[in-house]
């Protein structure tokens, strides 16, 4: 654990202009556990622009037990937000994909060959429960690939039941799964084990995307004062980060 905290003095202020595009957030009003209403959506998006972002790909949950979102529902909310941004003269590009929970509903979508909402081309943001390990994580990711999509695993560091199970991460990476870091995971806000997993994955060059996973104003306040370690700064300024091409 010493390595996580010993380089505090080497941290620098996060420069969001290096990322350009945030590809994981919950900004569409009233359809998941993110922005509850349009007013909040617009306030949060305005603050994204102030941070230095030029594009947002917002990703509402599709988690059938809780959030029965469909492409039509998401597209309608996106248009509502776009119109409000125009009325408020907030000039920032916003599109929508989804954060797909790998559950029975997702299996059904894949079996029916339903068109998924993608981050770019065939890249799909996916997640598992952060509390309980699924019985078939590798198989679920493989099913996404077999359907012609490239899974991006959202916040892999938050799956604390995989703590120190590094072989699992290496195996799915070798099989073509992409990794997305939650920026706030490195602050300890999700707990020390999440921070340690994030540091391991960062140190070993797993991440190709970074995202805010922003749900509410509390997240935004922490993003505004975020200090990042040298290894993350290197990712942001190097060629491996794919956010810049979105």
From TrEMBL:
Catalytic reaction annotation: O-phospho-L-tyrosyl-[protein] + H2O = L-tyrosyl-[protein] + phosphate
SUPFAM superfamilies: PHP domain-like
Any Pfam family hit: CpsB_CapC
Gene3D superfamilies: Metal-dependent hydrolases
Keywords from the named record: Hydrolase
Keyword Hydrolase: yes
EC number: 3.1.3.48
TM stretches of this protein: none
GO molecular function, one term: protein tyrosine phosphatase activity
Family listed: Belongs to the metallo-dependent hydrolases superfamily. CpsB/CapC family.
Protein name per UniProt: protein-tyrosine-phosphatase
Species of the source: Niabella ginsenosidivorans
């Amino acid at each position: 654990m010493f390595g996580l905290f010993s380089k505090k003095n080497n941290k620098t202020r996060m420069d969001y202009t290096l990322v350009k595009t945030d590809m994981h957030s919950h900004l569409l009003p009233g359809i998941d556990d993110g922005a509850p209403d349009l007013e909040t959506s617009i306030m949060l998006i305005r603050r994204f622009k102030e941070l230095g972002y030029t594009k947002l790909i917002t990703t509402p949950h599709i988690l059938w037990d809780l959030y029965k979102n469909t492409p039509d529902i998401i597209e309608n909310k996106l248009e509502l937000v776009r119109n409000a941004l125009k009325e408020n003269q907030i000039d920032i590009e916003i599109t929508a994909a989804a954060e797909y929970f790998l559950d029975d509903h997702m299996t059904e979508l894949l079996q029916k060959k339903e068109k998924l909402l993608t981050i770019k081309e065939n890249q799909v943001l996916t997640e598992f429960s952060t509390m309980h390990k699924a019985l078939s994580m590798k198989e679920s990711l493989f099913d996404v690939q077999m359907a012609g999509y490239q899974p991006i695993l959202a916040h892999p560091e938050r799956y604390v039941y995989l703590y120190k199970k590094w072989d699992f991460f290496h195996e799915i990476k070798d099989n073509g799964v992409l990794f997305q870091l939650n920026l706030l995971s490195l602050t300890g806000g999700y707990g020390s084990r999440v921070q340690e997993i994030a540091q391991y994955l960062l140190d070993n060059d797993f991440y190709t995307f970074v995202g805010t996973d922003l749900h509410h104003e509390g997240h935004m306040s922490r993003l505004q004062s975020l200090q990042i370690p040298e290894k993350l700064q290197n990712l942001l300024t190097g060629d491996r980060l794919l956010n810049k091409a979105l």
